Amino acid sequence: MTETPGREQLTDLLAQQWEAIALLVTDLDEKAWRRTSPLPGWTLFDVVAHVVGTESWLLGETPPPHDPLRPKTDVRTLPHVRNEVAVLNEIWVDRLRPLSGKRLLALFDETTERRRAALAAMDDDAWQAATVSPVGQVPYGRFMRVRLFDCWMHELDLADGIGRSVSEGGARAETAFTELTLGLGRAVVKGAKAPDGSLITLDLTGPVTRQVHLSVAGGRGSVLDEAADEPTTVIRVDSGLFARLRGGRTTADRHPGEVVVEGDTALGERLVRNLAFTI
Q: Is residue 1 a part of any domain in this protein?
């Protein structure tokens, strides 16, 4: 299994990720900022506002006050808001929407620069301290791996919304894929209804090239370090498409012929259709 990068490495990867996001949107005009993104209810502006909001929250800040001249939205009623993390995300996005794209980008740069400084100033005890996160109470460093995953996925959202290609491999992607694959055991059992004894290999063909082995025993799915036996099902898919399927950005039906399933094809197809998860 992939190890969590150390504090300095992960801080550097986060800084690179924020720079990649800023580079993608730096030349957008105001109309382009308001294009729809692959995420329900969010524009490209909203995706960047979400990152600003989360990093601001990690700096101990609260959302700006609601503008009384704007209609007030009960974010809990929005169909894509499913948990308390999403509620907080949506409040930040809503409060930042009155800004121009240019002002949002300046705020993004200022906020992420302060986050770089805050991360660089942390010691190892703070990095290992238990903290509340979208994946439960975990060491702060694990939470930052979740942050890298989230920001990496949003880089893809922005690129897809703009219509640009970006590099989808490298150290940032490899680290993000650890989060993408961690919960696959649940998808195999709850989504695909795989019976005990099932052995599934996900063969990711690049730009993040790896094999992910899954087994089911006692009604529980597990991600294995290596294959225990010949798989009953093999699924071959480009890692970029896998990331978008796993992140709920698209569905397999929209990509005919791009996913190859061998062995127990019915099981494999059920898994491909039930990969989506939300942190």
A: no
